[in-house]
Amino acid sequence: MTHFGIVCPAATGHLNTFLPIGQKLKERGHKVTVINFLDAQARVVAANLDFSPIGTHDFPLGSMDDPLAEMGKTDGLTALRHAIALFGRKAAAIMEDAPQIIKTTGIDVLLIDQTSRGADGVAEYLQIPFVSICSAVVLNADSSIPPVFMPWHYRPNSLLGNMRNWMGYQLLYYISKPISRVLSSYRKQWGLPLHPNPNDDYSSLAQISQQPKGFEFPRTDLPPYFHFTGPYHSEEHREEIGFPWEKLSSDKPLVYASLGTIQNKAESTFHIIADACKNLNIQLVLSLGGSGDKTMLPSLPGNPIVVNYAPQLELLKRATLMITHAGLNSTLEALTNGVPLVAIPITSDQPGVAARIAWTGVGEVVHIFRLTAPRLTEAIKKVLEDKSYKEKALKMQESIKKSGGVDLAVKIIEQVAATGKPVLPNQV
C-alpha cells in the first residue's frame, strides 16, 4: 500500500479531475489524503477520501468566494492577473503548511496539479516522488505552441509564429512574477536550486494529461514520460442536482449553455446567449454555474430553462450542441458524448482550449471581446447545420474511449510509486 497525497486547486473543475483518481487509488488498496483549502473539504469528504487543510488562517471556509466572484466579473488579462495573484497566495500556503502535513501523515508520493505552484518544491524539499497532472490544458511551454491564455491559432513551421509564441510566453512570465517571487523565496530557504524554466516545475517521473492526444497540438518538446490518458469525469460521486426534466421538449434539439463555475458573473453574456438562440428552432438550457439566484437575472429572451446548477453530464447525453466557456473539463465532457461546441473563451486556459476546438473542427469559437448575439447565432447555426462538426465530435468521442482514462492514469501513478523511475508510454 502506498500513501498518496493530492495537491490541487479547490475549484470544481480541478476536483472533478483529481477525486476520481483518488477514489480509484483507494479502491486498489492505497491510502489517499487530499491536501487542500477548507472550501474543498465537503467535496473531498463526500468522495470518502482523507482531508488535511492548508492555509486555514489566510483562507478560512468561504474565503475563495470573493476572489472567484471578482474573477468572474472580468475577462482577458485582467482576469488572468486576478488568477495569478490568487495563485501566488495559494503557493505560499502550500509551501508553508504542506511539508509538516506530509511528514505527519506519512505521505509517500504526491499527485500535483500543474496549476498548484510550489507543491513540486515541497516534494523536492522532502525528497519524495511526485507526478504532475494536467487538469487544465497542457501548460508545458513550447515555442511551437501558443501560450494557453492567448487565442492564437497553431502555426506549424512558422518563424513568425514561433516569435509570436515566444513573446506571449515572455508576457506570461512577466505577469507571473508575484508567483515566481514566492517560489524563489521558499526554494532559497530550503536550499533548492531555482527553476528558470517553468517546465522544470513538472515531474521527471511522469506527467499526465486528461486530454486525448488528438485534442492537443503536435508538440515537439514534451518529455518521453508524458502521457495522454483522456478524461476522468464520473457521475458516480458528483452531488445529485435537481432539474425540471419535464420541461424538456421532445421535438426540439437541446442546446446546453454553461460558462462554468468561475467566469460566469457577467449577466450580459447570459443575455446575449439567450438572445442568440431566441429565433432558432432549439430548446436552450442555461446553467448559471452557481453564480446566483436565477431570479436576479432580467427576463431572458426566448424563454430558456434557466437553472443555478445543472446536472451537466446527464444533460450532455441529450444535447445536440453545447455553448461553453471552453473550460477543459466541460469541453471534454461534451466530446465524451460526441457533442459539438460553440466556445466563448473568457480567460485563463480557455482561449487555448478554444483554439484546439477550432483546430480539431469539433466546434466554432466566438471570443468574448467579439461576442454579439448575431455573431453567436451565426456560429450556432453553422455547427447545427454543417454535419462535419458532429462527425468530428464523434471521432473525438472514439479517441477518448480508446485513451485509457482514469484506469490508465492510475497504472502510471502506481508504477511511479513502485519503481521511483520515469514511466514511458510503452511501459504501461
TrEMBL record:
Keyword presence, Transferase: yes
Keyword Nucleotide-binding recorded: no
GO molecular function, one term: glucuronosyltransferase activity
EC category: transferase
Pfam families documented for this protein: UDPGT
Gene Ontology biological-process entries: antibiotic biosynthetic process
CDD domains: GT1_Gtf-like
UniProt keyword annotations, A-Z: Glycosyltransferase, Transferase
Known EC number: 2.4.1.17
Listed PANTHER family: STEROL 3-BETA-GLUCOSYLTRANSFERASE, STEROL 3-BETA-GLUCOSYLTRANSFERASE UGT80A2
Name listed for the protein in its UniProt record: Glucuronosyltransferase
Protein species of origin: Candidatus Nitrosacidococcus tergens
